[in-house]
C-alpha cells in the first residue's frame, strides 16, 4: 500500500510551487524524510551533542544504542589514524590484516560459550544476512538441503536489507515491500509479558505457552524444512527493551535441538555489554549457534558489525567445503577493525561492562522514582543501560489502553525532551506494529549519576508537558 499523497500538496501542507522552490535550495543528500530536516551536529564530546545553533543535547540514547564510549574518544581516534597510515584497505579474498585478526582474537579469546570464529561486515543488516546464509550452508554441508525456512517473532527487528527485513516483525518498515522479501519466513508471538501475558497467567505458564506455540509452528511447517529460529535476546527498538521471561531461551534451545534447527541470537542492539554482560545471552540459560553483533562493536567510530559462530558450525564446514560461500568488498575493513579493536580494549581495560550493569540498575531506580506519579506510564523495563518506557492513556484505569496512533505520543515526547536538551529514541507500533508508543534510553557506558538524574528529570518533564493535552 503506497503512502497517501494529496495531488495539490505534500504532507507538510505545501503546494507544488512551494515544494519546487524549496527543492531548488536543498542539498543533494537524501535524508530519511523529505519534509523533516535533521538537526546539524557541529561536534560531539563525551555524552554531549553540540549543534550548529549553539545548543547542546545530552545523547541519552547513544544514537541508537551505539555510542558505548561516548563521543570524541582520543584513544580511538589515534588508533584510526595509525591504521590509515599503515593500510587503509585490502580485499579479504586474498589478504588479511593484524587488526582484523586481533579484533576477532580479543572478542573470542578462549572460545567463550563455544564461539570459535568471527566474521566482520559493515552493518547489522549485513550481519543478519550473513547469519542466514551461513545457517543455510551448514545444513547444505550436511546434505540436508530441504531446509529453507526461518522462524522469527512478531515485534522484532533484524535489519533493512531484503533478507533481514523478511525476518523482521516490524510492520511499518515492511509495508511498501509486501511480497518483495524472502518468502520462507513465519513469525510467532514475542516474549513480551506486559502485552502478551494473559490476566492470571504466571510467568512460568506464559513461558510454557510461548514454547508450545513455537514447537507447534515448527511442526506446522515441518521441522525438517527449517533452517533456524532467530530472536533478539532482549527485544530492541520495535517493542522497547523487552527481556524474556524466565526459562524461555532454555526451552527454545531444547526445542531447536530436538529438531536439528539452529538458533541465531540477534544482539546487534542489546549485545556488546549493553545489557550488563558482554553477551546478552549470558543472563539466559542458553548457548546460541550464531550471534549477530554491531552498534557497540565499533561504538559509532566506524561502520562495523559481525557474526560470532559456534564450533559445531565451523566443524561442519571443515568436514565439507572448508569455506564460507559469502563475502563483501568491505568485509573486515582494516580501519573499521582498528576502531572496533580500540573500543573493545577500552571496554575491557576500564571495566565498562560492569559499570554499565551498575549504572543501569541506577537508571532503572531513578526512572521509577521520577515517573512514579505519572499516569501515562504503562511499563518501565530494561537491563543494563537499555531501558524503555511504554505509554498508556491512563494507567489508573487499569486497561493499558494506548494513545491513538495518530497522536504520535512517543515522537512528541522525543521532540519535547530534545527542546529541553536531551536526545532520546522514540518508537511507535509497540504492541502490534500499529498501536502503542514507547521511548528508549541507551546512554553511553561512561554516563555519570548526575547525567542520569538530568535525563530522568527531562523525560518526566517532557511526558508531563505532552500529557497535558490528554
Automatic annotation (TrEMBL):
GO cellular component labels: cytosol
Record GO terms (molecular function): pyridoxal phosphate binding; transaminase activity
SUPFAM superfamilies: PLP-dependent transferases
Record keywords: Aminotransferase, Pyridoxal phosphate, Transferase
Pfam families, A to Z: Aminotran_3 (PF00202)
PROSITE patterns per the UniProt record, alphabetical: AA_TRANSFER_CLASS_3
Biased composition, class Basic and acidic residues, residue ranges: 1-20
Positions of region (Disordered): 1-24
Keyword Transferase: yes
Similarity annotation: Belongs to the class-III pyridoxal-phosphate-dependent aminotransferase family.
Name of the molecule in the record: Aminotransferase
Amino acid at each position: 500500500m503506497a503512502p497517501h499523497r494529496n495531488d495539490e500538496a505534500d504532507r507538510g501542507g505545501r503546494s507544488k510551487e512551494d515544494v519546487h522552490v524549496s527543492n531548488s535550495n536543498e542539498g543533494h543528500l537524501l535524508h530519511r524524510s523529505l519534509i523533516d530536516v535533521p538537526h546539524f551536529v557541529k561536534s560531539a564530546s563525551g555524552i554531549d551533542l553540540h549543534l550548529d545553533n549553539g545548543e547542546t543535547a545530552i545523547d541519552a540514547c547513544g544514537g541508537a544504542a551505539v555510542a558505548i564510549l561516548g563521543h570524541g574518544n582520543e584513544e580511538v581516534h589515534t588508533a584510526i589514524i595509525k591504521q590509515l597510515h599503515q593500510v587503509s584497505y585490502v580485499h579479504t579474498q586474498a589478504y588479511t590484516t593484524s587488526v582484523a585478526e586481533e579484533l576477532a582474537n580479543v572478542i573470542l579469546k578462549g572460545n567463550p560459550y563455544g564461539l570459535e570464529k568471527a566474521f566482520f561486515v559493515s552493518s547489522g543488516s549485513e550481519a543478519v544476512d550473513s547469519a542466514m546464509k551461513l545457517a543455510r550452508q551448514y545444513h547444505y554441508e550436511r546434505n540436508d538441503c530441504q531446509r529453507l525456512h526461518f522462524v522469527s517473532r512478531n515485534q522484532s527487528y533484524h535489519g533493512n536489507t531484503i533478507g533481514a527485513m523478511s525476518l523482521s516483525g516490524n510492520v511499518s518498515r515492511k509495508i511498501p515491500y509486501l511480497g518483495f522479501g524472502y518468502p520462507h519466513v513465519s513469525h510467532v508471538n514475542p516474549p513480551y509479558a506486559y502485552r502478551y501475558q494473559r490476566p492470571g497467567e504466571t510467568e512460568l505458564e506464559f513461558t510454557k505457552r510461548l514454547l508450545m506455540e513455537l514447537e507447534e509452528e515448527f511442526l506446522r511447517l515441518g521441522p525438517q524444512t527449517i533452517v533456524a529460529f532467530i530472536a533478539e535476546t532482549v527485544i530492541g527498538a520495535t517493542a522497547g527493551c523487552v527481556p524474556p521471561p524466565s526459562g524461555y531461551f532454555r526451552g527454545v534451545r531444547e526445542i531447536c535441538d530436538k529438531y536439528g534447527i539452529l538458533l541465531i541470537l540477534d544482539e546487534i542492539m542489546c549485545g556488546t555489554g549493553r545489557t550488563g554482560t558482554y553477551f546478552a545471552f549470558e543472563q539466559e540459560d542458553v548457548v546460541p549457534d550464531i550471534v549477530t553483533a554491531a552498534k557497540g562493536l565499533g561504538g559509532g567510530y566506524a561502520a562495523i558489525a559481525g557474526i560470532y559462530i559456534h564450533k559445531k558450525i565451523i566443524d561442519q564446514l571443515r568436514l565439507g567445503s572448508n569455506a564460507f560461500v559469502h563475502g563483501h568488498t568491505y568485509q573486515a575493513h582494516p580501519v573499521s577493525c582498528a576502531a572496533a579493536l580500540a573500543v573493545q580494549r577500552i571496554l575491557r581495560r576500564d571495566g565498562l561492562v560492569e559499570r554499565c550493569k551498575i549504572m543501569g540498575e541506577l537508571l532503572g531506580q531513578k526512572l521509577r522514582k521520577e515517573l512514579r506519579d505519572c499516569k501515562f506510564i504503562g511499563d518501565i523495563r530494561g537491563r543494563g543501560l537499555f531501558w524503555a518506557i511504554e505509554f498508556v492513556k491512563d494507567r489508573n484505569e487499569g486497561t493499558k489502553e494506548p494513545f491513538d496512533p495518530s497522536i504520535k505520543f512517543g515522537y512528541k515526547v522525543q521532540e519535547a525532551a530534545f527542546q529541553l536538551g536531551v536526545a532520546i529514541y522514540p518508537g511507535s507500533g509497540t504492541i502490534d506494529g500499529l498501536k502503542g508508543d514507547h521511548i528508549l534510553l541507551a546512554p553511553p557506558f561512561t554516563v555519570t549519576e548526575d547525567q542520569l538524574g538530568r535525563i530522568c528529570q527531562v523525560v518526566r518533564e517532557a511526558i508531563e508537558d505532552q500529557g497535558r493535552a490528554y
